Structure formats: C-alpha cells, structure tokens
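DM between two lab members

TW: hey, do you still have the ABC transporter substrate-binding protein entry open?
JB: yeah, one sec
JB: this one, 401 aa:
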Amino acid sequence: MNKKVLMSATLAGLMAAGSHAVAQEIKVGFLGGFTGPIESLAPGILQGAQLAVSQVNAQGGLLNGRTLSMPTADTTCVDASAASNSADRLVNSEGVVAIVGGLCSGATIAAANNAGIPGNVVMISPASTAPAVSDINDNDLVFRTVPSDSFQGIALARLLLSKGIREVAVTFLNNDYGRGLADAFVAEYQMSGGQVLANVAHEEGRADYRSELGNIASSGAETLVVLAYADGSGQTIVRQAYESGNFLQLVGADGMVGDALVNAVGAQALEGMIATRAGSPEIEGADVFAAAANAVNLDPNAVYAAQAYDAAFLLALAIEKNGSADRDSLSDALRSVATAPGEVILPGEWEKAKRLIAAGQDINYEGAAGSQEFDAKGDVPGVVVEMVVRNGRFETLGLID
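TW: and the structure you got?
JB:
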C-alpha cells in the first residue's frame, strides 16, 4: 500500500471513528443565566444537573451504553434575544434531545417560544417560577420541577402574617418573575388582613434606587419586601434601603436567596432578613440526593440544585423509556416515568430504572425535590421553606405550612 492510499485509509478510519463517537453521545442541553442578575446562583443549579449526568454515565449510560453529555448556553437571565439565540444554538447547532432550563422565567418563555417549541424539544425548568410559564402554548413540551409563584407568593404572605407583620411595602422587578410573584403575594396578603402600603415596580440594571425607596418609605411601611434578583436590582435595593435607615425589616423570595448577596451587602446589613424559596419535602429522595451531593462537594441546599437534578434525571429516564434519542414522543415518555403507578425510582437508581424499563415495567420517579408528578400544564406541587439571614448566611428554618 503506497503512502497516499495509506493516508486515505487512515483518514477514513479516523472520520469513521469520529462519527461513531458523535453517534454514541446523546445531548441534553443546560440553558442557564451564567451572567446577569442570578450569576451567583447558576453554578449550583448546573452542578445539580451535572450530578445526574455523571450518575447516568457511571451506571451504564443511556440506551445501549451511549454517553449523556450536557452542553451549556447562557441567557443572561434578562435578555430575551440572548435567551432565544442560546436556545437556538442548543436546539439547531448542538442538536440536543431536550433542555434543562431556562432559569429565569422570561428567559424560559422566550427560549421556548422561539426555539424549543418550534424544534419539538422538551424543556424542564428547575427555577422558572412565574405563573406565566404555565400558560405557554407549548404542545406539552415545557415542564418545571419547581412550583409556580402562585404558590410561593401565598406562602410568603402567610409567613409574614404569622410573624405579626401586618403592613408592608413591596418593590418588584418589572418582568414576568417579579410581576407574577408580587401579584400572588399582594392578593393573598390583603385577602388575609394585611395592608400593602406601597406596591411599586422597578427596572433592572440601575445604579440608584434611592428616589423610589424614599417614595416607598413615605408610605410609613417599616417592612420592605424586595422581589428581584440577588446579583441585580435586588442587591442594590437592599443595600440602599439599609443605608437609608427607613426600614426595620427586609424580606425577599427565592431570587434573593444566596450567601453571595450577604457577602456583597454585608452581614450586619442583612442580619434577620426573611426570605422564602422552594424546598424539598421530607422524603427519602431528598436524603438520597443530599448524600450524593455532599459526596461531590455540592451543597444539597443550594438554591434549585435539587430541582435541576430532578430535571436532568427525569429527562434521562424519558429518553431511556422512549427507546431512542429522537425528540418525538419524549413528552409522553416523560409523563410516564414521572407518574404513578410504577416501581419507585429514587435519585441515583439509574441501573434499576434501566433494568425495569428494559423488562417493560412501569416506573415512577420520586425525586430529590418532590414527587414531580406533572399536571396538565407541566407544573408540579411543591413546598416552600422559610429562610433567615443569621451570622452572615442564609439558614433554612423549615417548611411553611
């Protein structure tokens, strides 16, 4: 064989090997807000999803031993165009079968409408809580493993009233997340006897909110509820609210929960701040996830890490159930593996799930953050936990009834 023939044969072999390697890989994308107002929260959420990927690959991979990979893309959280473009890259360039994400509600809605739904790609958000997500005309493609803010807003209102806080002022980020959460909170708070002395929208990205805070303070409210993001307007507002000395109590919701906020603003400024976020019920799956997370130095209580784990593990189960890496019928398979009846599958039980699916048996995933039984709109029931800043960090106090 001459050198030219040998080189051609070698090149052909390398190309075939490369094609085989690509064929062996199944991609589930991760659409996150790695820059922008939740950038300190995004890494922990991604780590939760990556833990599920690593367990799947360590226990035999997908289908007939194919590797699960997770390409990532950034939405910036607040830029609909960036979210749409990033989702388009995952759907049409990376060729993902499904997506974990987005994280911010507006980003998820934009990504779904402009790329996910047209591409017939199932998306599961672990963090998009706006009620508007439930109303996407999605062909049963958009799901979430976190409860809607219709639920969190009610829980926050009841928590404050249970503490004897009868008057508040509210400032909320003027987007799908902020508006939806504020609407749910205000409705429940007022219906249950509380008084909202001011309810003011604000825009992201400003350096100074002192004028707005002065107007809010003139209402006489001593408790300020800030419904925004910890690395964006929320951080600036709580800092300037503390500096003003006009408010005795600061309150936030899930977008404000993170020790990075305390580090940025100062422990003394935020000591005693009350917050809520979606949590994990006291179930076996939560304990199993916590042990696995601790083993890889992931804080199991990191905001929405458990929900991201569930989203990724559920998508892997759905692909296995579907029997192929095709996008068609994946939502049906997802509902099947997430819904009773069926043999219970806990976090990390990938080998068991593969064996049962191969035998034609039904399975029912009971996750790290809840049972994850999707309703007709792709929503799940959930629990909300009370948080408080103590000694320079957010602590979880327990479930809110």
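TW: got it. The chain has two domains: 3-146+283-365, 150-279+383-399. Confidence is low (pLDDT under 50) at residues 1-22.
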